[in-house]
TrEMBL record:
Hydrolyzes acetyl esters in homogalacturonan regions of pectin. In type I primary cell wall, galacturonic acid residues of pectin can be acetylated at the O-2 and O-3 positions. Decreasing the degree of acetylation of pectin gels in vitro alters their physical properties. Transmembrane segments: none annotated. GO terms for cellular component: plant-type cell wall. Keywords: Cell wall, Cell wall biogenesis/degradation, Hydrolase, Secreted, Signal. It comes from the Eukaryota. Belongs to the pectinacetylesterase family. The lineage of its organism: Eukaryota, Viridiplantae, Streptophyta, Embryophyta, Tracheophyta. The keyword Cytoplasm does not apply. It comes from Lupinus albus. It is an enzyme of class 3 (hydrolase). InterPro entries: PAE/NOTUM (IPR004963). Residues 1-19 form the signal peptide. This is Pectin acetylesterase. One of its GO terms (biological process) is cell wall organization.
Amino acid sequence: MEKHFWVGVIIVLSNFVHAFETYHINETELFFLEAHEESVSLVGRNPLMVGITLIQAAAAKGAVCTDGTLPAYHLHRGYGSGANSWLVNLEGGGWCNNVRSCVFRKKTRRGSSAFMEKEIPFTGILSNNPQENPDFFNWNRVKIRYCDGASFTGDSEHKDAQLQFRGERIWWAAIEELKSKGMHYAKQALLSGCSAGGLATIIHCDEFRGLFPRTTKVKCLSDAGLFLDAPDVSGGHTLRDFFSSVVNLQGVQKNLPFSCTNHLDPTSCFFPQNLIGGVRTPLFILNTAYDSWQIQSSLAPPSADPHGYWRDCRSNHAKCTGSQIRFLQGGFRNHMLNVVKGFSRSNQNGLFINSCFAHCQSERQDTWFADNSPAIGNKAIALAVGSWYFDRAIVKDIDCPYPCDNTCHNLVFRQAKSHH
């Protein structure tokens, strides 16, 4: 058994190295490709495994993954009181912003259904266990797979590199398919997603609301999707530059909410801070005040830190200096709180911003709902979201600043070996 395991590891690593050699992906690009939501924590001994379904009708609509394969989803049927309720989850996983990084994605599950797992675990908000997911366990729960590279918004192609950017068409093809499976008659619906899927949730929230009659209760949950248009540690704009190239390459502009594009440039309208004020549907923002993906990839990426001052802090918050923590408090946490100020004035919107170094908390069982899951004022994330969705309470939970919260499940990363 051990021998087989090591063979598998060697193959994976050699493919990874091959990707570097062929496409010369630099370290910063790799951060954008490899979002941390990939490491889903499977708390609970036997997670529910749900099989994949390819959307056969998608090809005729040109709704295909980056490599031209059919898009896909995983559906687990609801029952009992949840039989007419639908939770639609948009998968996350970074973006690609140039031909090189998009060609790399084509050979992964992020750009091709040929590489997607045939079945995936449904944990956290997707779990069918009432002890793990008290409010949504018996709903129809769907994960729409992410294989376009622009948060389900692009619509263009690159013929020479044989790249299809059809995120917007995939979104609509998936929605049509789910409507035909019974979602059309939903009495309650929730659109959710984490990371790039959390951004997609904000962008498509009002469209999702528009699918249902007024009598249907429809809300949206964006987890770790509040990507900030904030300067990096060198004063540059790593994430803005990156988003700009995603928007331009993938033809995103025409699919962004008009409430934003009628007064701001398309790149600004790919940033949630410029979208959330225009979303009319009730929206819940779940985010950490020290989002580990944003710290690693947009705030203090290696490209903005040539001398490596942020290297230790980037991989382990406990190694941050006093001045680095002050930068994170002022340049990031305070920025985030300012961004949600107007949004939080509306009682229909919900907020849970905890002072953790993490990324994506709704789909991992240990952070969504477990004996020791993160909490603000003894309220776990699952209970906060449930209270908001079912109008049991107005939820506007903002944690005191780091290091006051001892319930966090902080992510600490192994240092990558330096190539210098």
